[in-house]
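hey
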């Protein structure tokens, strides 16, 4: 049950993260947004469990 709940609630995380990053960065730094999102997701690979 917990796995189903996590799967349902996690689906909205990525669109919310994109919206937050797009509002957080100023318009002049808009080209850095994809780099920030990619680094945020790949940093999980290097963190200890």
């Amino acid at each position: 049950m917990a796995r189903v709940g996590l799967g349902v609630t996690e689906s909205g995380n990525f669109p919310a993260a994109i919206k937050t990053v797009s509002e957080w960065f100023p318009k002049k730094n808009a080209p850095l947004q994809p780099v920030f999102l990619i680094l945020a997701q790949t940093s999980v690979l290097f963190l200890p469990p």
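The helical segments are 2-10, 13-24, 33-42. The first helix runs from residue 2 to 10.
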